[in-house]
Amino acid sequence: MNPLFENLQLETRRHFFGKSARGVGVTALSTLFDRDLSAAEASGASTAPVTNAAPSGILDSYHYPPKAKRVIYLFQSGAPSQQDLFDHKPLLQKHFGEDMRDHFEMTERLTGMTKNQKSFPLAGTKFEFKKHGKCEMEISELLPHISGIADDICLVRSMHTEAINHDPAITFFQTGHQLAGRPSMGSWLSYGLGSANENLPTFIAMVSRGTGRPNCQPLYDRLWGSGFLPTQHAGVKFMSVGDPVLYLNNPEGFDATARRRMLDDLARLNHKKLETFGDPEINTRIQQYEMAFRMQTSVPELTDFSDEPQHILDMYGPDVTTRGTYAYNCLLARRMAERDVRFIQLYHMGWDQHFTLPTQLTGQCRDTDQASAALIKDLKQRGLLDDTLVVWGGEFGRTSYCQGKLERDNYGRDHHPRCFSLWMTGAGIKRGMTYGATDEFSYNITENPVHVHDLHATMLQQLGIDHERLTYRFQGRYFRLTDVHGRVVKDLLA
Question: Do 175 and 277 contact (CB within 8 A), yes or no?
Fold first, then answer.
């Protein structure tokens, strides 16, 4: 059987004349427009000049000398409470139970969950804070392991965002826009810089469920999707049960030689279609089939922890060998970093503590504290932290007033986008520094505000990219991760 001949046999008279008409039209149009300009607009590539040779993406070279080769983003889905973890406010405890409106005017919009409350009682944390490291960074007792790496991280207490509900807020952090449909940050990096390892995806996502509130806000595949970029730049989700990647193994009785022969025939058919239609998604399919074939060897090796010393496993904690846990994903992220995966995204669900916060938050911290700190230590001891940018944080903050009934040992917090905390490290980020400040009630930012677009611009800067110059033409305009906003926060850079 000749697959190309079989394909031609299926071509109808209508197909033939349809292709002929398109060919004549394309030939005519090419005489009317400058071909180079047309090609640039068709690909969506930025035409800005660049310097320094870049690896393999749409950019011919970096805009700046890069500090980071890769990103590990530890996204804490649901919004960790800054008042209980990173932003100690003793006055909340002093005025415990008093109505927030007795102290200042509440100008922030409220969610539907608390807008009809008769009172907004202030809720101080029940957890102790202490200063840690030479930098004397103040961190909650709930995070003893992260406290131990205080001199290695930069704590930003002045983050703010625009969304007040989870889905648009998470979408905003991933894509720079509250509405779904735009590329995620990992997709932008795949598009701009390309792959550094041909045997693994450029962008990988992993999801774990927390013990604090395991059935809280859902996460959707579009959060690591490519939006309007070609789908070859979408993130590949590693599954927590079964095969890490769906349909990676050959069916029973079908060996690697047969798979290779089948893929070669399929590639010839797809190339023929690509020549005919010029659809970039056909090229994406060709590349994805080849990547899947290579991953049949690379993924089992990546996920095999048998070569990890016991002291490394112990450092990540007791859950490290349990598939689907945050600790397992953190160690897997380090192994991906060693293999030059460009963007590694971990999502840990369960940080949405509207009620029974003291119990739920304790569980969430137990899930993540040891493994987060172990990842930083592990990267550092292997020399990978110098060129790996690590970010830890959620989509917004929590209110300083209690949602529902307030008790001394039990309270909950609603959503608060006006100020919250996040930490980052590695790849030219200042370490042992606390940046920004909020007022005595953790309601407003008082020093050095950092917007989501500012964070994205700063991350891209460390990756050697000018956030205003990595663009893609779609529906008549040039889009970018930071939309029409964003500034590099140079105070965060070493």
Answer: no
Q: How many domains does the chain have?
A: 1
**Which residues 6+ apart lie within 8 Å of 299 measured at CB?**
200, 244, 245, 248
> pLDDT digit string (tens) for 134-182?
999 999 999 999 999 999 999 999 999 999 999 999 999 999 999 999 9
Residue 34: band (very low, low, confident or very high) from pLDDT cuts 50, 70, 90: very low
Query: 441 in a domain, yes or no?
Result: yes
Q: What residues make up the domain containing 465?
A: 63-244+319-492
- Do 377 and 321 meet the contact criterion of CB atoms below 8 Å apart? no
CATH code of the domain in which 393 resides: 3.40.720
The model's pLDDT over 323-373, given as tens digits with 9 standing for 90+, comes to: 999 999 999 999 999 999 999 999 999 999 999 999 999 999 999 999 999
Q: Please state the pTM of the whole predicted model.
A: 0.85
Do 472 and 182 meet the contact criterion of CB atoms below 8 Å apart? Answer: no
The answer to whether residue 293 sits within a structural domain is: no
The neighbour count for residue 61, using CB atoms within 10 Å, is 12
How is 304-363 classified by DSSP, letter by letter? -GGGS-HHHHHHH-TTTTSTTSHHHHHHHHHHHHHTT-SEEEEEEE----SS-HHHHHHH
